[in-house]
Amino acid sequence: MNSRKKIVVLSGAGISAESGIRTFRDTNGLWEDHSIEDVATPEGWQRNPDLVLKFYNERRKQAFAVQPNAGHLALVELEKYYDVTVITQNVDNLHEKAGSTHVIHLHGELSKVRSSADESLVYELTEAQWEVKKGDVCEKGSQLRPHIVWFGEAVPMLDVAAEETAEADIFIVVGTSLQVYPAAGLIYAVPKGNPIYIVDPNIPDVAKRQNLTLIPETATVGLTRLAQQLIAEATT
User: Would you say the pTM of this structure is higher than 0.85?
Assistant: First the structure.
């Protein structure tokens, strides 16, 4: 029987930003100078698949080139002492690259593509083969599309994430404004009274919760410090 406590982490764009990945959405509501409607909706895909493929090819190439930072590595270190599940809103694979073994991607994965006709047909891309073009098809002959959850689409991993969160002994939020739903609502699935830590230089506005600890630091600083604290607690 596993007696180790369970840590569930909800990560957002802030942790990836420290590795050099620009957050998709900037202050004027554009994603890398494109409107969300053009590159992150099923309608945008129908209108201009070439633009959408190009947009995600560029994001994918960048994601393959960057490396995990101290924040990602702190979560890996926690796995030596805790049962750790990372629920991420990010579409890069930096958590996996760092060595995290249980990662749930709420919004899809840049490193994968899927059939536009059969969403169960998912294919892994590599650093050597990162580009997807019009005319690249699945085994059934349908165009491949980014394996990304676009606005207006269901979030298939949400129920799994909620189940994990409901079992959390400790819940950590890092690098997210808690403004994007339904992911932001996961914090309310944490069992009442269990500790919640929020690590972000800009602390999001959340309802006052019992055992809520705010750490106004970047992921590299705040998570490293928090991991050291939690490891000390587990070993004393």
Answer: yes
